[in-house]
Amino acid sequence: MQALAARILLLWGVRRAGLAVLAGAIGALALPPFDIFASMFVSFTLLVWLLDGATGNAETGRAGLSSSFWTGWFFGLGYFVCGLWWLGNALLLEADEFAWAIPLAVLGLPAVLAIFYGLATMLARLLWSDGIGRIAALAAAFGFVEWLRSFVATGFPWNAIGYAAMPVPLMMQSSHVLGILAMTPLAVFVFAAPALLGTRRGAWPGLLLAAGLLVAHFGYGAFRLYVAPMQATDTTLTVRLVQPSIDQSQKMENTDRIGIFEKHLALTAAPPEQGKPRPDVIVWPETSVPFILTENPDALARIGDVLEDGQILLTGAVRAEERGAGQVPLYYNAVYMIDDKGQILGASDKVHLTPFGEYVPFEDLLRQFGIEELISLPGGFTAAASRVPLRLPSGIALYPLICYEAIFPSEVAPDLAGASVILNVTNDAWFGSTPGPYQHFLQARLRAVEAGVPLIRVANSGISAVIDPYGRVIEGLSLNAVGATDATLGVQSVPKRDRYNHLLNLWLVLVLMTMMAMVSSLGFIRRKN
Predict the structure, then answer these.
(1) Which of the residues are catalytic?
(2) Which domains does the chain carry?
(3) What is the DSSP string of 338-368?
(4) What is the pLDDT of residues 232-259, one digit of tens each?
(5) Is the peptide bond prior to 463 cis by the omega test (within 30 degrees of 0)?
(6) Is residue 101 over pLDDT 90?
């Protein structure tokens, strides 16, 4: 291992950049649908050895900061290109209008996101040493920049490193205590620990600490899943997930709106499977109603005709809010709650809009260059000021997350605003049969585990599922399946709020890792002198 580390340390130029890109690409194999957990150990071990070889200008005292930045940037480029290439699929749906932007989605966005990883490696270099301290420095730096990535420029925390440590429910439970943000630096420390085998100093303490973290990670997961059946529920809710798998190009052509609507109604009206109870709630995906519901009383009447007594429909739809004569209405991406009489009982609008999908950031500037959002509405969508839980007639309150809002831990209020179930409606048909829907599904599952409540997730083309508070799939429909499935989940009317302060946990981990790095760095300086 030492000989291999020495060879990598001495790499320079194109070979060095190429290996950094390869290391990031290998790490992307840990993401869904591949879930090759072990690939991250290879990825971060190579990154540490590359950073060991980062050199700087001794006269200016920059200590390899520039070289470290570019090493991290190339690493991030490989990771994000291989993890996010599927974004280009959405632009192919209207290739005549948006094909020119495919390089921006496939290469441009990853290049921008890679800046965060370049910043991480540059910050880590400030406390770099020859032992366990450099692993701690790298972990703290990645934890810090992943936190920045969750909110800078409205945030895009997709595929944070911590998710690679949680591919299955056994490995998800730590996030209930720590949260995804605190999981990331701990995961980086464990993933990078094998790099210590390539050095002579600090190997065994670092490897033992990493092994201890792994044992605690798996051990807590096993314990929490073991006691899970003992958790009490106050009531049950039977839910039907409707997954029509409408092709996105058909939705965009807008020529068969009635056919799309009737397909949803037919799946809603299907009898339950033998032995299963009648569903209390039927859920349709994001923007599944192809017209403005409040302008179509006949559509509401049709919904009322299909629903049986006492049933409730939750459906994604565009909501229009009139502003007066001569003014364009405000449009919201919403979830409606409709009863068996075709009456709208409530609605909740999306708070965190998707840049370039639902609105154009820096609109006045970018529209001058012909840049438009993918979803064509006059003026784009408007973001809601706050999130409104949807309270069913039974008293159960649902906490709605629309589309990619589910990737943001910060969008889930600590007390869920009194709700006891998370509802996520989305339309991942934009991305076809690519890794995108699988990655989105994993991140939504983690919101349920973090919050300790069930999740109802319905996607137009999948993956739709009912998830228990431990990340386990109760019932679901696979990607591109067409149909409806019913599931009964236990619900606590007043859920036990045992969620920890996840942001505080992040800073505690960062402080501990930074202190470890500082102590090691000071010792390294003394040895050199």
Answers:
(1) 286, 350, 403
(2) 2-227+502-528 (no CATH), 235-317+333-351+387-491 (3.60.110.10)
(3) E-TTS-EEEEEE-SSPPBTTTB-TTHHHHGG
(4) 677 889 999 999 999 887 877 777 888 9
(5) yes
(6) no
